[in-house]
Amino acid sequence: MKKLFISGHGGMVGSALVREATKRGGFHVLTATRGQLDLCDQHAVFNHLASARPDIVIIAAAKVGGIHANSTYPAEFIYQNLTIAANLVEGSRRAGVPRVLFLGSSCIYPKMAPQPMPEDCLLTSPLEPSNEAYAIAKIAGLKLCQHYRAQHGLIYHSAMPTNLYGPGDNYHPLNSHVIPALLRRFHEATQRGDASVTIWGTGTPRREFLHVDDLARACYHLLEMDHPPDWVNVGTGEDLTIAELAGLVARTVGFTGKILTDPSQPDGTPRKLLDIAKIQATGWQPAIPLRDGLAAAYQDFLAAIASGGARL
């Protein structure tokens, strides 16, 4: 049985990875809460990995948020994500961990990248300014794994997921991503009986969304490969406009009013669709349609309300 350390196990991605490991079997899952291990503390991380001696480390821990959070707290986003990646990658090397999977983001690719975005368009032109800090940190994590693999012969590799959603998401009104933010906004508007809901921006940017359980399946698929790519895109290969997404969320929640746009707010990158040909060629495919995933995500939001948890 392989010892698997999942950093960030309490988050949306980490909890999905724990669920999938339990379902598959064959893993002794190691975790540590923030109270037990500060991933920004190099000494603590090095000692923890040296003591635990995992066979595999998945770096799912990250400081994450939507456009508002990225624009407001860029210093925290770049510092914390750079530090987490550096501490876990170097700590794994020192502890003799033979395999590391680093989770990045589709925002690593240029703002005006070709669509869909292939892996080889990385660093070919400027990034989207609104999330540049986060993207740079994720690029650094990817490059750490690539260069450690080349120099030390370790299987350190990366997966770059598209926009994620699903159980365990953060529904904060300002700092959440677009799907949880819309779920909350439309739910509250329905409860109040509002005649309309206004969404940020023009509604025209196109986005791709992947259920977090599909990402978890992709991660273990990659971990089963003897020679995985240095980094690989993980998405659905399909996108829709933010306005179309808002309509889907409204129908999921039961909101029947008008949907308005606010062009004074930022749109972000015009389009972010991943080219997933590389991972598809290895035999992986997404399995959860967006409509079904949204319905399940709304039930998770209702459960978060009922529990009065910190995710609100």
Task: Give the helices and strands, then pairings.
Elements: E1 2-7, H1 12-24, E2 27-30, H2 42-52, E3 56-59, H3 67-72, H4 74-94, E4 99-103, H5 132-152, E5 155-161, E6 163-165, H6 178-192, E7 196-200, E8 206-207, E9 209-211, H7 212-223, E10 231-234, E11 240-241, H8 242-253, E12 258-262, E13 271-272, H9 277-280, H10 290-307
Parallel strand pairs: 1-2, 1-3, 3-4, 4-5, 5-10, 6-9, 7-12, 8-13
Antiparallel strand pairs: 8-11
Description:
It is a single chain. With 312 residues, the chain is of the alpha/beta class. It has one domain: Rossmann fold, CATH 3.40.50.720. A six-stranded parallel beta sheet has the order 2-1-3-4-5-10, with helices on both faces. A three-stranded mixed beta sheet has the order 11-8-13. It has a two-stranded parallel sheet with strand order 6-9. Helix 2 runs parallel beside helix 4 and helix 6 packs across helix 8.
Residue runs with pLDDT of under 50 for 5 or more positions? none
CATH first level: which class?
Alpha Beta
> What is the straight-line distance between the termini?
37 Å
Shape: globular
The number of domains = 1
Number of strands: 13
Second rung of CATH, namely the architecture: 3-Layer(aba) Sandwich
Work out the helicity level.
40-55%
Q: Supply the CATH superfamily name.
A: NAD(P)-binding Rossmann-like Domain
From the 3D structure, determine the CATH topology.
Rossmann fold
Average pLDDT score: 95
Whole-angstrom Rg:
19 Å
How many distinct helices?
10
Percent range for β-strand residues: 15-25%
